[in-house]
Amino acid sequence: MAAVKTYYQERLRISAIWNSAGIYIAFIVFSVVVLLPIYWMLRSAFAVQADLTQTPLVYLPSPTLHNFEMLIDQVPFVEYTRNSIVFSVGTTVTTLIVSYLAAYAFARLRIRGSGILLWVFLLTMALPDVGTIVPLYRILSRFNLLDTITGLTIVLSSTLTPFTVWVLVAFIKQVPYEIEEAAIIDGASLPTILWRILLPLTAPGLVTMGVINFINAWNNLLYPLSFSVTPASKTLSVSITEVFAGFSPWGRPWELIMAVGVTMVIPITLLILVSQRAIVRGLTGGAVK
Amino acid sequence: MPTSSKFKITRREFLRRAGSAAAGAALAANAPGVVAAARDAKPFGVPHIRQNRKVRIAVGGWAEQNMLDLLERTDFSGQTGIDVEVVLRTDTKETEITKIVGAVQAGTSPYDIIDFEDELTTTLSQANYMLGLDDILPSDLWDDFSPEMVAYSKVWSMHNDETFRVIHNWEMPIWWYRKDWFDERGVAVPTTWDEVAAMGEVFTDEANGVWATEDGLIKGAFLNVYLAWITLQAGGNPFDVGEPYKVALEYIYDLMHTHKTLNPASLQKDYNQQNGDYVADRVAFMRQWPFFGDFARSAENEEWFHEDKVAIGLPPVGPGGIGGSTYPAAWGFGIIKTSPNLEEAKELLSFLVSTEVAVEAMKVGFWFLNARKSVLAEAPQDNWLVQQLQMYTDAGVIGVRPFHPQFVEALTILEDNASAFLTNQMSLDDTLNQTRAQLDDLE
Questions:
Q1: Do residue A123 and residue A261 come from a single domain?
Q2: Average pLDDT, stretch A26-53?
Q3: A and B: number of Cβ contacts within 8 A
Q4: Mean pLDDT to the nearest integer, A247-263
Q5: Does residue B62 sit within a domain?
Q6: Which residue ranges of chain B lie beneath pLDDT 50?
Q7: Distance between terminal CA atoms of chain B?
Q8: Are B330 and B167 in contact (CB under 8 A)?
Q9: Residue B93 lies in a domain
Q10: Which of A110, A217, A267, B243 has a C-alpha 20 to 30 A away from that of B156?
Q11: Structural domain total, chain B
């Protein structure tokens, strides 16, 4: 009996070791896949061009800030960064406000056809962004909003709103309506209910969508590329298409492109680190009832 | 439950008011635009009063300062009262098309004049996005162009006999070589295909990564440059997929695999890697655009640089004869048809392409160097780039860049098939047949 027990204990122990090993191997493979491009970007951004083309490869070149100096020299870096921040924050805030109100209406009001409308909202996401450029150009031109951050913000907010509404509807529906009824009995108005009751309960969802929308706006190239002409509204992402090697169009300045990449990744990384806990809660919160 | 509000509204009412507030906010955000639109609007019957005249020109970042300097030096604004705004265009044809197509389809344009390359000229002029320039060009313009520049312009700057671009930057692949190495080994610079092939035996040292020659042949327009260059030397156009193209492919294959002259790893390299290998003493001679001269002379390569390491020779002559030993590529000015400041754009373009201003432009920067008679006559003769341009022009080695009306699509077909052949994945006959069939499907 003891021998049988020992045998099964041994089997369990080996099985546990294999499971752990599998998890560790998967973790290592995943880490390499995720971290290798980041390592490559950092390596290229802080290296001189000669180090990038050398064979055998130089894995750890002597670090230099030369590329960042060049970047500041070649493009209006301060203006582009400022525009990126204003554009991303503006888009995030606008999208969240509009989506939150719309999501509340979809979640709480019984309007004939609201379910279909929600699906139609979602269908707009299937439209390729590039296919909307011409009509959007006409609209922005009509309202003198070309080459302005306001125009970019309105356009991208309209693109991000459907998905944000869709996600927030699930979050609001999760909050029992009885809580709102209790508040109404206590005399709370709708703005009070939204601000003091619903908002804290759906905060993880809002934070998650806020971060996702911020990243979308921060990395967006198509709209600033299409609708911006001067440094007044161009964003950092556009600078990837403007840096150059030497004083000619022939070479590809990979080291400068990577420097732009590093500059763009830093704020996103900080944002995710700060809001990590809320994002995890937000991503899992809407999934179960 | 504390109540913070004394008034009560229904949810429906709240949403209605919130909607109105959002609309109000949007209108407020648009206010400057609305005000500007109202200011610019013309009431019926009131004659249009000309406001400040302005024009916007887009150039690559590498040319921005040159353009600003030129405008200041020539005082265009002072002479005409037209304010010129210089803005940056993007660096590739694809991104620029994304930018321009939406605007033109919407009846406007992000800028009035654009400084643009061959491929973009073909696409935009065929799409009828560019303004025909023949009526506004100075009468003596074509007389000032070298015959090679005229021939080139007919192919790459015109469509249906109408001019859509006037070129100002005209440069061609140069034949760079290590004079110090050639002198050391007592051999002459190769001037024919056979001599080039024989250099493998002289210089290639595979074990130490040294090759007689190397190129940037990675797919994505790099390989196409070399295919076009060699096929032109063979006397044809690669897009015709005729006998010269067959001869060219066989020759490139032999350079790589039979004579060990051309590094086969070139197929995975771009121009940066090619330049890097040259300054790392791994290449004896190569075909490369003039920007290599700036790279070799940059502070980064100060210790390595010596004039004998970047000597310039005439490109080798192939079966097609000396006239097609190399070909140029160009950049030039054109006006977008839907430009909001069309008259001002015409004035600026005529000004920029005039003989006097073309000479001034070259003095401002070599981005404006070309083989116009007036420009070459005034160019500093002690400069390596001017010397090269003069040498190639005098020797008559400059042909016309091989053309295809759907250039970008066609070059992708050419590159895909050629690289399969050069890496032993496809036979020569299959390569040619497949290339021909795919190009036929394009039309």
A1: yes
A2: 91
A3: 170
A4: 86
A5: yes
A6: 1-7, 22-49
A7: 75
A8: yes
A9: yes
A10: B243
A11: 2
Asked if the Cβ–Cβ distance from B33 to A145 is below 8 Å, we say yes
- Shared domain check, A126 and A190: yes
What is the identity of the amino acid at B191? T
Model ipTM value: 0.80
* Residue B2: inside a domain: no
Q: Residue A148 is which amino acid?
A: T
Please report whether residue A56 resides in a domain.
Answer: no
pLDDT per residue over A63-97, tens digit each? 999 999 999 999 999 999 999 999 999 999 999 99
Q: CATH number for the domain including B301?
A: 3.40.190.10
For A35-102, give the DSSP string: HHHHHHHHHHHTS-HHHHH-SS--SSPPP-SHHHHHHHHHS-HHHHHHHHHHHHHHHHHHHHHHHHHH
C-alpha A241: how far from its chain's center? 21
Q: Which of A105, A186, A238 sits opposite B15 (nearest CB)?
A: A105
According to DSSP, the residues that pair with B116 across neighbouring strands are: B332
The position carrying tokens 């439950």 is B1
Token readout for B189 is 């610079």
β-sheet bridge partners, residue B333: B115, B166
Tell me if A104 sits within 8 A of A194, measured CB to CB. Answer: yes
Provide the pLDDT for residue A141.
92
- The answer to whether residues B109 and B123 belong to one domain is yes
Q: Which helix (H) or strand (E) holds A217?
A: helix A203-219
Q: Under a CB-based contact definition with an 8 Å cutoff, are residues A205 and A286 in contact?
A: yes
Q: Among B55, B65, B99, which would you mutate to test the A interface (most chain A Cβ atoms within 10 Å of its Cβ)?
A: B99
Domain containing B283 equals 174-326+404-442
Residue linked to tokens 């990126």? A84
The verdict on A261 and A218 lying in the same domain is yes
Could A229 and B56 be called an inter-chain contact, meaning their C-beta atoms sit closer than 8 Å? yes
- Specify the residue for token string 């990243």: A215
Dihedral (Cα; A59, A61, A65, A71), 10-degree rounding? -60
**Residue that has been written with the tokens 């890697």 in this structure:** B273
**A182 is in which domain, residue-wise?**
68-285
Residue B9 confidence (pLDDT): 53
B95/A196 CB distance under 8 A: no
Could you report the per-residue pLDDT of A105-139, keeping only the tens digit for each? 999 988 888 889 888 888 888 888 888 999 999 99
Asked if B87 and A241 come within 8 Å (Cβ–Cβ), the reply is no
Same domain? B92 vs B234? no
Cα separation, A94 vs A280, in Å, equals 23
Q: Could you tell me if B350 and B148 are in contact, meaning their C-beta atoms sit under 8 angstroms apart?
A: no
Do B241 and B364 fall into the same domain? no
Residue B12 lies in a domain: no
